[in-house]
User: What shape does this take?
Amino acid sequence: MSMGTVAPLTSFAQIKLLADTRRLEILRLLMAAPASLTGLGAALGEHPAWIRHHIKRLEEAGLVEVCEVKVTNGVTEKFYRARAGAFLIQEMVLPQEGDRPTVIFSGSHDLAIEHLVEQLSPYINLLTLPVGSLDGLVALRQGFCHLSGCHLLDADGEYNAPFVRRFFPDRQMTLITLAYRQQGLMLAPGNPKGLRGIPDLVRPDVTFANRQRGSGTRLWLDGELQRLGIPATSVRGYENDLHTHTACAEAIKRGAADAALGLQAAARAHGLDFIPLFHERYDLALPHEQASTLAPILDHLQSADFRRAAAALSGYDTAHTGEQIPL
Assistant: This one.
């Protein structure tokens, strides 16, 4: 490590060490500039012997190091510095293993995934974090989840596989289709504003509820706005980020927005009008080494219970559910 880098803290020992605010403050001072025990003591109003105790703990954890030794009038003084310019705390904290294994799903929000969580709950503790398709793949790459869900359309017209190949060029990955889904404009009941398509979003009397950056839905919208030559700034509410299709539907239902891009299933569940715009493939991505751990989940995709629940969602097609996409 060097002062010009950001170092991730991935051990509980390091994180626990910095839970002490005094040690954290010492580390922050040494990230700013090298200092001796005497200098740190003066800055913090503490005796150098007190500082020495905490420096030793930080040194043992690999967070600080000696960078210079000075001898003045026969007195040797060590100067310390942080081993990085900044530290990033990142660790996935899971429940203690019990009767059910815990699996973390991170990716694009999907209503069929919610059914999967419910149906598997007696056997698997499947926890979901809807962060969008791109951030879900980032989380999978960084080891912060076990599987991810995405619906990303590449420039060549292929869904998901090109993104997985780019994110994981050095790892063997598995890509499984969850379902095909219908997306479009979700509108207030009865479509009181008489909206007909994306170009109508620029009308000054229309408020839009948008999805967060990195979501497949947001990326599709950005591409469509660009294709139509519509500046995003001309869409009132474009900057209002919501993290799920359900949240967008609820915003329209309570009158906070007139329109949103989202799933037909979410629109129907909230009694909204819907204008279909595109049909997409939603896939599950997982590292090959997780295949045995996740086998019960993948097997359940083929079950009659799951297919029945997913097919009952408006706009969902399960004809290809469980199929593996070549990578």
Observations:
- The chain has twelve helices and 14 strands.
- The chain has a mean pLDDT of 94.
- The radius of gyration is 26 Å.
- Residues 102-317 form a domain with the D-Maltodextrin-Binding Protein; domain 2 fold (CATH 3.40.190.290).
